[in-house]
């Protein structure tokens, strides 16, 4: 247990009998949940963690082969669950963690009572009639910029991902998150994330789920949220007024209310 807890910098807090697991998105760490976690502490035992390469995780545990697909990150989730003896949890995944959580739930459905997806996407690339939001040339340009100037990439993209120009401090906060991630691991995780195609995995999910879709999200546009909703067996979709890709940071109250309404 100690090695897994240390590897993923796991934190456990709150006083509830049921467990809520909060899984951060690409380029972030567990601190991004600080704005909403307190709202659930009385009703849940909260588990937060860092993926290997992020925050206070053990960088020596990183393995390029293991983490070349999202299955490697899903394996981390299942190892954390096993180490903490977790079952019947509420799993909240932001961005790429939505698909990581879905992959984990497909393998061990007894671990999950409900899945909550914030800005999910099973496929970021446009593909024939599917609109994921990015052309391959867009992603190649993104990867090239990351490889040549990761700091510059972070400063340029974070405000666009956040999409709250009237609150520049949010873009700065996300930039700081990006910059706190090991740049070599971040570049590999970007390719793993943005080139993944998990559309075929959606039909196997038997766990009830909630899709929280933001407006004006360049990373996971409205069509993607609608696609998720249509493909999943037992999914509720809520469209938030929040703009951008990080509603738990830019619109915490609205995000909290949407999650509580679904769970209650």
From TrEMBL:
Residues 20-257 form the AB hydrolase-1 domain. Gene3D superfamilies: alpha/beta hydrolase. Pfam families: Abhydrolase_6. Belongs to the AB hydrolase superfamily. This is Pimeloyl-ACP methyl ester carboxylesterase.
